[in-house]
Prior knowledge:
Layout: H1 2-20, H2 31-63, H3 69-103
Helix pairs in contact: 1-2, 1-3, 2-3
Amino acid sequence: MHLLAAYQTIALLIFCLIVCGFWQPNQNRSKANLAISLGLVVLACLHAQYMVDLSELMDVLASAGKATAEETAKAKAITSIWAGIASLIVGGIGVNLMSSWFDS
């Protein structure tokens, strides 16, 4: 389960880099740039909630006896770390792009 969190986060960061490639630096007031920045902020929020859901899923698996307490603790620690790191990176990029849209 903890590998799922890591792979999902890496995929999110790669997707973020791809989306940032569509940013048009010469046209800061375009609606596409605003949509990209808002999309990144929303994506960061959704990723944080997804990691919380994975943590709750581990609790359910532990209560059903399908995961040990050690596995549950390890998975919860890793998902909480990935939730913080990736969500802050993607959200920060989105807010930075949004602020440049408003400044221009």
